Structures are given as structure tokens and as C-alpha cells.
Amino acid sequence: MNATDVGVTHVHGVNPQHLVEKILRNRIYDCMYWKEHCFGLTEETLVEKAIDLSYIAGHFGGNQQPSPFLCLLLKMLQMQPDMDVVMTFIENGDYKYVTALGAMYLRLTGKPVEIYPVLENLLSDYRKVRFRKTMGWDVLHMDEVADLLLREEYFCNIALPRLVDRFQLESMNLLPKRKSALDEALLSDDDDDDNDDDDSDDNDDDDDNSDDPMGAKSVDDSADE
Prior knowledge:
Layout: H1 22-30, H2 32-37, H3 43-51, E1 56-57, E2 59-60, E3 65-66, H4 68-79, H5 83-91, H6 96-109, H7 112-121, E4 128-132, E5 137-141, H8 142-151, E6 154-155, E7 158-159, H9 166-171, H10 181-209, H11 213-224
Parallel strand pairs: 1-4
Antiparallel strand pairs: 2-3, 4-5, 6-7
Helix pairs in contact: 3-4, 4-6, 5-6, 6-8, 7-8
């Protein structure tokens, strides 16, 4: 039940399950959620369990109990689902905790050139998610989750693999320069200004035609058609 599936390839040079530290991994193996809900899961039934998630968390409480989110993440590392399945998790618009689970898995197992574009797309996702801390609760937005995954060394009590700086990948032509939402908004404003200028020029031409008998006739003919 706790062994990595046959055929699973190493990630970052190690067994994927070992991306979760041994002490935490053993706590997950011993917890009731793992024993009751993660035994015999397939990719299809994993989706059903992920849909049932109601919060994001690592471990919580005085006894550091592993969360269902963490259990399903370890199960994904054990199974190594196809990347198409992972992307379906992330891109779905109906189940926000499924998105978060897929994003966390990608951050742990993906390559930097895969991680940056996908997680940056989530920076414009403002769905609220419940985050259970060691003690107490917090509310985050999905863009905050993506930002934490891109910037922090730990998330949900798991050490995140080192992420090569984005500018380094850009300098090597492995990634295009990122356009932020602000850049897109400014570009849109510039286009609107250009359209306004064009409309103003068209109005000036119409004013010139008003003194032209042929121009006036053209307008009258158009109205008659």
C-alpha cells in the first residue's frame, strides 16, 4: 500500500515519494485518512477524492495530523499520474482544491520551464480557498497560492525543489519574457487610445465632407438605400 507503483520514474533523481520528508511521510502512512481513503486509488477515483477536499493544509493540530490534501498529494507521487491528468486538475474551473492539488504536484515534480507558465496563469485566479494552519485557519486566494509556490521554499510543510530564476531561463531563450496582468492592461489602454484617435480623424473627415455637395449626396444616398 505504501510502495511506489511499478513503472514510476525518478523525479529530481529520487523516488517521487521521497520528495516528502521521511518523518512526514511516515505520519501520512499512519493516519486514518490514508488507511481508509487512499488504499487502491486509481487516477479516476483519485479525482473523486480530490473533488471532496474542502481546504488546503500540511499537518495541523498539536499531534501534527496530516491533512487529506497532503495524503492525496503523496498518493499522486506514489502513482505518478500522466501529465495530461495533472493539467486537467490545474485547469479545471469548478473545483478549486483540485486546482491547488495539481499545482502543488506540478511544483514538486515539474521542470522550471513547465512550472512557470502554468503557475503564472493562476496569478489571475482569485478564487478563495480555506487554508488550515498548524493552529487555526486562514483564507487565501488561488493567486496567492500560486505566488507562494513560486517564491517560497516550503509549502504545506513540504520542502519545494529549488526553482531556477525565471530571468535566467529567459536569457537562455527557454522562456519568453512574462507579461503581467498590468502590462496587458496598459497595452489594452494604448489600443483604446489609438482607436479613439482614429475615430477623431474620421470625424474630421466627415466635417470636411459636410461642405462637399458630393459628400452630402453620398450620405443621402446611403440613407435612402
